[in-house]
Design brief:
By secondary structure, the chain is α+β, with helices and mostly antiparallel strands. It has one domain (3-98). It is built from one helix and four strands; from the N terminus they run αββββ. It has a four-stranded antiparallel sheet. It is elongated. The model has no long low-confidence stretch (mean pLDDT 91).
Amino acid sequence: MSLSLLFWATVVAAVISFWWRSDKIKHGALAQVSRYCKNQNLQLLDQTLVLKGVWLVRNEKGSLVFRRKYSFEFTSTGEIRYQGRVVLYGALLHSMDLEAYIIPDDEDSIF
């Protein structure tokens, strides 16, 4: 086996590993966002997160981790779409913020 082939096999394996891990992290983040929206009587639209960026940063412990920023859409009334953002450091939720939204008049959830 040549050194060149070994190098490229390692690169391909690293890319596949990164993609696989990122997909698992995205599904975990989607579950957290979905749970949060349900608790706040909001509806997560399209059941999807859109990756907005990946950066290397240091977490609170000083370790290098990937910072992933996702956006999503939600509604409070079923009529208007609002934007939300979630930031993860590694696989851990760092922050979530929602655009200001209308709170329905009635106490019953429409979702």
